[in-house]
Structure prediction request, 284 residues.
Amino acid sequence: MRRIETAAELREASRAARRDGRRVGFVPTMGALHAGHLSLVEEARRRADVVVLSIFVNPTQFGPAEDLASYPRDLPRDAALAEAAGVDILFHPASASTLYPPGEATRVTVSRLTDHLCGPRRPGHFEGVATVVTKLLVICQPDVAIFGRKDYQQWRVIERLARDLMLPVEIVGAPLKRDADGLALSSRNVTLGADGRRAALCLPRALAAGAEAVAAGERSPEAILGRMRTLVEAERRARIDYLEIVEPEELQPLLRIEGAALLAGAVFVGSTRLIDNREIAAPA
Ligand code: AMP
Prediction:
């Protein structure tokens, strides 16, 4: 596995691979790798000849009261996991200025798709994500880039920005991976502790109950959200940030569930914010 810290070196390595007729697959992450991330690497390996994984804790996607400073970081462990998973190139910018050179003044904004879910609760978050992912795609120029549907809204936002900016890349959304107990894998889970982890299970439980209600014929988002809210509120240590039901492309709230829908939520357990979602398809 080759390790690269500069944009120029990554651009050249990717160019060389494509010149040799090899497809480049790209998996951007913030590190603290887990099996969810590694499933994206596997997907990239299926779809490309050379897999680039980036690790960059992107400051512009964190709000002033968020966990940028305490976000888990462990580069030696991540590098070993990446190598074992078959990553060919690990891109780890030495500092934030590698991607945000002095004097930079440009941001990428994706509207409408960011009106609901995490958008209003994390002002500036998706602008930070869209900006850094655009930069990474321009530097790496992959044939295909893989994102997890754990961060469903993020995946849709990136899919749309690639389309709108006519970037020559295929954006793939890979399935959400859960732990055996049902908790969505997340780098932030390590901050929970055993009690917090038990409490956090109220979110996947509420989403599963919502999906079951739809399967049993309920079509009113309000009724389903009411049941989901009750389940989360039964957990003393959890605080709802939002629970919403939206249509899965434009991410706008649904008045009635017909066809495809996304049940999505965010809860705080202590100071840790967790997100999760379930994709459902109601028979018409
Ligand atoms: P992060 O390091 O949290 O920014 O995530 C990097 C990539 O891994 C994003 O595309 C995430 O959606 C994806 N990812 C994180 N957790 C999971 C998971 N549990 N299942 C699938 N993909 C995930």
In short: The chain is about 35% helix and 20% strand.
